[in-house]
Amino acid sequence: MPPAQKILLIDDDNMMGQLVGFMVAAFRRGSFVLEHIKDFDGGLKALLSGDYVLCLLDYHLGDRDGLQLLREAMAQQCHTPVILLTGDDNEGTDMAALDVGAADFMAKSELNPRGLERAVFYALKMAAALQQLRALAFRDELTQLLNRREFDRRLGAEWLRSVRFQRPLALMMMDLDRFKVINDTHGHPAGDAVLQHVAGLLAAQIRQVDCVARLGGDEFALLMIETDHKSALGAAARLRGLVASTPCVFAPKQLTLSVGLSAGVASWPENADSVSALVAAADAALYESKRLGRDPSRAAAR
């Protein structure tokens, strides 16, 4: 049996905590457990932890209200769905809750087990749909790596952080060797399988703090945080070796397709004084590595 999913209640009333706890325990679909926090700061910290599938948030929280808490949570990119609980039927409060980012609102006077269960499952379903839309916004559909737009955003943010704290940053640009031959010889489905195969290899090798993206076609990029030039070159050599030694099996045509990876590396502060210069240096190193036999250590940006 899967573990119970956690619902967070932020409400300064002990009786409300007991009442909602009984209702949640009576849900007929799924297994849920309620955790009750009574103060604004503790509630905000818990909501931002990401440990809960949903939050029930009281409008009245002493000197501050639930709308303020919700605003602060949304400003910190909180994606946990929130249902605002109001003590009256003030339509202005209800609409303000939706404007701030609440998934729904309920009057406390109308709370009952079945109504609360319906509201919770509706909010969870809506949150799942929004999560899929967010994924489509920054993931490449074929490989599920980051897309170019999201990669560029993260590159810009990490550049600013590295410059501010004087920490190294490395960028690796990659593409597949003779990929057009695979498409022309075996068809685009085989080419797509190769792209997915290589993307899986790259994603499995990177650290959690790094990010890898498909920029388009057979082009990939890897952003390596807190990584100096020498270490980035070592990573490029390892990835090239891994791809070369791990052919792609394309089952529909019973093919085993070997593929090569070329890479170029540039880093800050060695090679660039701006984001655009870093990208240009890594691109130049990639093309030079192809010219010199696809060895990034011979074509490192200098």
Helix/strand structural class:
alpha/beta
State mean pLDDT (0 to 100 scale). 91
In CATH, the homologous superfamily of the largest domain goes by the name: Reverse transcriptase/Diguanylate cyclase domain
What is the makeup of the main sheet?
5 strands, parallel
Residue runs with pLDDT of under 50 for 5 or more positions: none
* Radius of gyration over all CA atoms, rounded: 25 Å
Q: Name the CATH class of the largest domain.
A: Alpha Beta
Number of domains: 2
Q: Characterize the overall form.
A: elongated
Q: Roughly what fraction of the amino acids lie in strands?
A: 15-25%
Spatial order of strands in the largest sheet: 2-1-3-6-7
Distance separating the two termini: 57 Å
Topology as a string of helices (H) and strands (E): EHEHEEEHEHEHHEHHEEHEEEH
**How many β-strands, per DSSP?**
13
Helix content: 40-55%
Count of runs of 4 or more consecutive helical residues = 10
Examine the coordinates and then state which fold CATH places here, giving the name of the CATH topology of the largest domain.
Alpha-Beta Plaits
- CATH architecture call of the largest domain: 2-Layer Sandwich
Brief summary of the model shown:
The chain is α/β, with parallel strands linked by helices and 302 residues long.
Task: Give a structural overview.
With 302 residues, the protein is α/β, with parallel strands linked by helices. It folds into two domains: 5-136, 3-Layer(aba) Sandwich (Rossmann fold), CATH 3.40.50.2300; 148-298, Reverse transcriptase/Diguanylate cyclase domain (Alpha-Beta Plaits), CATH 3.30.70.270. 48% of the residues lie in helices and 22% in strands. It is built from ten helices and 13 strands. Strands 2-1-3-6-7 form a five-stranded parallel sheet, with helices on both faces. α1 packs across α5 (113-138), α2 (40-48) packs parallel to α3 and α7 runs antiparallel to α8 (188-205). The chain starts with a strand and ends in an 11-residue tail after the last helix. The model has no long low-confidence stretch (mean pLDDT 91).
